[in-house]
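thought: fold this chain, then report.
action: predict
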Amino acid sequence: MRKQLQALRDVMAEHKIDAYLIPTDDFHGSEYVGEHFACRKYVSGFTGSAGTLLVFPQWAGLWTDGRYFLQAEAELKDSGIRLMKMGQPGVPTLDEFLRNSLQPDQVLGFDGRCVSARAGRRYYRMAKNRGARINDRLDLVDEIWPDRPPLSAQPVWTLDETYTGESRWDKLERVRETMATEGADTFLLTSLEDIAWLLNLRGGDVDCNPVALAYLSLTLEACHLFANGAVFPPDVLEELEIDGVDLRPYDSFYAYTNRLTADHTVMLSTRKVNTKVLTSIPTGVRLLDRTNPTETMKAVKNETEAANLAKAHLYDGVALTRFMYWLKKNAGKAPITERSAAAHLEELRKEQPGYLQPSFDPILAFGPHGAIIHYSATEETDAAITDEGFLLADTGGHYLTGTTDCTRTYALGPLREDQKAAYTAVLRGNLNLAAARFKKGCTGVNLDYLARQPLWDLGLDFNHGTGHGVGYLLSVHEGPQSIRWKSLGQDAPFLPGMVTSDEPGVYFDGDYGIRLENLMLCVERETTPFGTFLGFETLTLTPFDLDAVDPALMTPSEKDLLNRYHAKVCETIAPLLPPEEAAWLKEASRPVE
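observation:
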């Protein structure tokens, strides 16, 4: 990667740029991006889904979080790029580093289409305070990437109301009601998942995320969709027209925003729109910086979606349970690798009704690879799976009936006492969080301790969030809610209908890793004179590995939680399995005394 890094520095010199910023984002702030937008990966070689590269003429650094420390260390080796471990002692934030490094009269450059408006504002303020300048109209990587993939243009299709539970028109009207309440006449929406949800459309422009590249402007009378018209079949165009949605060229969005006038009151989220969107809106237009109303609407699944999700997890549970059976029977007896195991699980999912595709790239991590939180096997790293230690399997699927995400860690041979103790602590955290009963208004910060306490009691911890929201046939990572012990400053309270992951873990570099993840649906439990109380219903249905559990380390109530969960798994999954596998499941989900 030194070649790409030097080429970037050469064009920086041509454009008189003293520092150049390359985030991971596309034009829409997506978590995962298409190959056209893999600029940071192209220059640095780091393949993780989160990270920002900052390049100076004589220094370069990449900021990423704890999920990727081990991966980034390996992939940045000999690249000339320094790994900046976010959140670690002595490591400045990207903003702090820029404030201390950018000199008066120097120029910081970036592609404003790939930097959020909120971040762009910070950089402009910082540069002004330092006597420096910003150039946000430069896509320098495009100048050095000769075979850059084009923008994706996959077909768009309609997700039927049988699955969405709400029509496109009704969703548009709900958002218009919010606009009217806020006093806005125009709403600019650039988040791909939100646009897909709002219009009941799905696409294929981002791997594992069934979305289409698009921008949207909603007014009180009209809806303008900016997208590649060639990917819309005639029947979809007809449906959109009936609901008052007109299609415009994808690249014409910035010209549209530039034509807004002082007569307009525009609602948008500076956390979501990019810097170019904000700077293209003329001075004098009144702006309302608000959280996209679609964000919470999308996160709260309706009754139809909730019922469909139960079906998705039933079928996913069949595939996961059959995989566990196969793995337990064949590890050490047949040639299996991380990649072949992932391929086998994918084939089992393909057999299930309504299955479409993976919801993210599978993580099958054997032995020491399990300590790399977001490890993804390559041809070079594809480890043979034997009958010893742990295999961590974090996988998920998109079904017409919803999205799944599950992690299990399987014991493939005899375990040490410390391994069983660690597994049991992670399991206890998972069970305790799932059993939470809490007052409406609580956020994930209030609940996180339930999952970490068994680990903290042992002086252990994990360097990632405990839970994330999950979309309905959209992104497997969805806001606004999350579960973590550090506040994000804008923590969203749980609402009935939200789907959230429950995934504590623990990782020992060079030895093994453990993570146990279920998805949970937030439900209302009861209302008393003291308020409304909520809880969770677990959606995921596949056994935990009792071969890794030390019951002596569990409380009676935790054993009861485990037994009740396993009884439900056996009751619902066993009837859908072949007889031999059903008999095995009964033993694998036996009560713990």
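thought: worth noting. The longest helix spans residues 303-330.
final: tokens above.
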